[in-house]
Write a structure and sequence with these properties.
- The protein is built from seven helices and four strands, in the order H-H-H-H-E-E-H-H-E-E-H.
- It is mainly α and about 300 residues long.
- The protein has a two-stranded antiparallel ribbon. Strands 3-4 form a two-stranded antiparallel sheet.
- Strand 3 and strand 4 form a beta hairpin.
- The chain starts with 7 loop residues before the first helix and ends in a 9-residue tail after the last helix.
Length: about 300
């Protein structure tokens, strides 16, 4: 089973930068003294943003779970309609057929809302951090890569300023490896941010599997809706969006299989079960709610 590493390229770049730092001139002591408080402010700002994006993720996830629950309820009502006791309504012509058709339409509506909630959690290609339409994962990925603080202009300038963007290839943005807080350099905070984002990337991929399953369920009493497979694009441009966090690989043209942290599985992703029973659906909803890949106790 392929492993998921949403930040491998970023980690590799950071490692290469650190390896070459010994060959690059260090900042002067006076500039370093000014760099440290600027770097501290930047780190506080970036971690504050990550905390905010986690709240946005929780909101989108909660909406998705609500829509998934409504979808499941509509499906189960259709499935058990033939055995339902309708009382005085049982004499009405085609009452069960009409009820199933209405429930089927409700299921489709809730499915559309579920897909919309999933899209809110998915990165958008070409989006910028300042765009209001940018989704949660894009914010998280960009923020995790913005921990460094670079010198703006030259060190000989009478006014020393700093920026989150590099203007000099010789400036690594880490103050020459000096600690920012206590004994922790910038690279340590980058590693923590990458680990945090990785958890959400894994959870997004698992939720995608649940979305595929829930959008594919149908019953004999109603017309068959869309039948999705794991390899299908759920909306136009989804694979490009998922490439931002390395869930989809353009090189091999495949999606990284979903996984749960600490659990190894070599089973392929099977075709969705189109008529799951209520116990299986309860597991789906519980898995969505539990967010098993996000370790809230270590954050």
């Amino acid at each position: 089973m392929a492993t998921l590493d949403a930040t491998a390229s970023c980690s590799s770049s950071a490692s290469n930068l650190q390896h070459s730092s010994s060959k690059i001139p260090q900042l002067s002591p006076s500039v370093t003294r000014l760099w440290r408080p600027a770097a501290q402010r930047n780190l506080r700002n970036q971690w504050s943003k990550l905390a905010s994006y986690r709240q946005q993720w929780a909101s989108s996830s909660s909406k998705g779970r609500s829509h998934a629950t409504d979808l499941v309820n509509a499906y189960l009502s259709q499935r058990y309609m033939p055995a339902m006791e309708l009382g005085v309504l049982s004499d009405m012509p085609n009452i069960r057929k009409k009820a199933c058709m209405k429930l089927f339409k409700q299921q489709g509506l809730h499915g559309s809302k579920l897909l919309s909630a999933y899209k809110d959690m998915t990165p958008k290609i070409g989006a910028k951090p300042v765009d209001l339409s940018v989704t949660v994962m894009t914010h998280m990925v960009n923020t995790s890569r913005s921990m460094r603080c670079f010198l703006k202009g030259t060190s000989s300038s009478p006014l020393v300023q700093f920026s989150s963007l590099s203007e000099d290839t010789n400036d690594l943005g880490d103050g020459g490896g000096v600690p920012v807080f206590l004994f922790w350099p910038v690279s340590s905070f980058e590693k923590l941010a990458e680990e945090l984002v990785q958890m959400f990337v894994l959870e997004l991929n698992l939720k995608r599997l649940l979305v595929v399953e829930l959008l594919s369920i149908s019953c004999e009493e109603a017309p068959h809706g869309n039948q999705y497979r794991w390899s299908d694009e759920l909306y136009p441009g989804e694979f490009d969006d998922l490439g931002i966090c390395s869930i989809h690989s353009k090189e091999i043209g495949e999606l990284i299989p979903p996984k749960i942290i600490g659990f190894e599985s070599h089973s392929p992703v099977l075709r969705p079960n189109q008529e799951p029973d209520h116990e299986i659906l309860q597991v789906y909803l519980t898995t969505w709610l539990a967010e098993v890949n996000i370790d809230t106790y270590s954050q």
